[in-house]
């Protein structure tokens, strides 16, 4: 093998290493963001189930377990929940914030929170806001 061929292989190897160093983290971030998006959509589906229950029984349930995500009642009266939130852990960090999602099929208040180094996404229902 000539000296020139060795240099060319070295340069090709360095280029491959640089590509891995810069592209691999981006791809991992994108995969985590995709999974976080799935979790947000799962919470939106759970919220729709809770709204359907409210429409049928005129009350939110005190206990709700068909979801792998956490359900918390924040206000209750006479064995019925008035306000609640559902929570999921996300993989990618997000700054603490809250807002309203007016996208079709969503129409809910949400918030991002940091707790014990984890990012939590919460959808609130039963009251008018999702204050921090």
Structural write-up:
It comes from Candidatus Andersenbacteria bacterium RIFCSPHIGHO2_12_FULL_45_11b. This is Type II secretion system protein GspG C-terminal domain-containing protein. The chain is α+β, with helices and mostly antiparallel strands and 132 residues long. It has one domain (3-125). It has one helix at 3-57; strands at residues 70-77, 80-90, 97-101, 108-115, 118-125. It has a 5-stranded antiparallel sheet with strand order 1-2-5-4-3. A hairpin with a 6-residue loop joins β3 (97-101) and β4. The longest helix is centred in the first third of the chain and has 55 residues, at 3-57. The mean pLDDT is 89.
How many β-strand runs? 5
Strand order of the largest sheet: 1-2-5-4-3
Number of helices: 1
Q: Write down the overall geometry.
A: rod-shaped
Multimeric status of the protein: single chain
Termini gap: 66 Å
Q: What is the helix/strand order?
A: HEEEEE
Structural class: alpha+beta
Query: How helical, in percent, are the residues?
Result: 40-55%
Strand percentage: 25-35%
Average pLDDT score: 89
The total number of structural domains is: 1
Radius of gyration in whole Å, from Cα?
23 Å
Parts with pLDDT < 50 across at least 5 consecutive residues: none
- Characterize the biggest β-sheet: 5 strands, antiparallel
């Amino acid at each position: 093998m000539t000296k020139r061929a060795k240099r060319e292989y070295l340069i090709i190897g360095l280029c491959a290493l640089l590509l891995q160093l810069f592209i691999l983290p981006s791809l991992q971030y994108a995969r985590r963001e995709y999974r976080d998006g799935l979790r947000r959509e799962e919470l939106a589906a759970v919220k729709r189930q809770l709204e359907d229950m409210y429409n049928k029984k005129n009350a939110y349930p005190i206990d709700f377990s068909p979801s792998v995500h956490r359900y918390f009642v924040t206000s209750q009266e006479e064995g019925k929940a008035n306000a609640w939130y559902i929570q999921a852990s996300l993989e990618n960090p997000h700054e603490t914030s809250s807002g309203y999602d007016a996208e079709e099929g969503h129409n809910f208040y949400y918030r991002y929170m940091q707790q014990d180094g984890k990012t939590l996404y919460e959808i609130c229902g039963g009251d008018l806001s999702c204050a921090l």
